[in-house]
């Protein structure tokens, strides 16, 4: 891949940016990305794990090997799992970062807090342990959709999640954690900086980093990397919009330079 713009990389969010929400990439978009890769270095950075990213970005072959060789860089779980030219270059997770002792302290405290919480109903799975974070739900993740909707309404009035987050934030401030309330029934707990900017540590060789994402507003999962002073941020509304903006920025430029 010689002759590509040196020192420049273009990064893409996956869901809503390269694919329609929760859908697979279209053949047309896949072809576009391959054409773009002839001109610029290309990376993808998704919040999901590599299996899910492969399902969304893979061709007919949905194995993980396909996607890691389709792009120069693939960052799964915001970059906690990082690939360059098809090779694994980094792997980090919540458990090894915190260590078992601190993790246990955090989980024990959280479970005690939920046990003492007087809310109308509780179900099961109050803490879901994921590789890059804990997902905490006061009602429990395996409630029904109806129970979810009820909890969301109840939480808007009683601020169950935001009160819980402020207690945890104070109690565990020495651990430098981020608490992020999202969706209807839960919040995420992860180390500071473990958003999409995490992947930037692997891109020291690129003075110019472009990022394209759909959730670039405050509270969205593309916000931090979009706002980062290391990137030039671009907001898109769909995969078609992504392709259009890229043509304008990188393909037209190439044609003009030639
Ligand atoms: Mg997105």
UniProtKB/TrEMBL annotation:
Pathway: Nucleotide-sugar biosynthesis; GDP-alpha-D-mannose biosynthesis; alpha-D-mannose 1-phosphate from D-fructose 6-phosphate: step 2/2. Keywords: Cytoplasm, Isomerase, Magnesium, Metal-binding. It is found in: Cytoplasm. Pfam families: PMM. It is an enzyme of class 5 (isomerase). Its EC number is 5.4.2.8. Its cofactor is Mg(2+). One of its GO terms (biological process) is protein N-linked glycosylation. Its main location: cytoplasm. Gene3D superfamilies: 3.30.1240.20, HAD superfamily/HAD-like (3.40.50.1000). Mg(2+) binds at residues 13, 15, 214, 226, 231. Homodimer. Belongs to the eukaryotic PMM family. Catalyzes the interconversion of mannose-6-phosphate to mannose-1-phosphate, the precursor for the synthesis of GDP-mannose. GDP-mannose is an essential sugar nucleotide for the synthesis of D-mannose-containing cell wall polysaccharides (galactomannans and glucomannans), glycolipids, glycoproteins and the antioxidant L-ascorbate. This is Phosphomannomutase. It comes from Dendrobium catenatum. The lineage of its organism: Eukaryota, Viridiplantae, Streptophyta, Embryophyta, Tracheophyta.
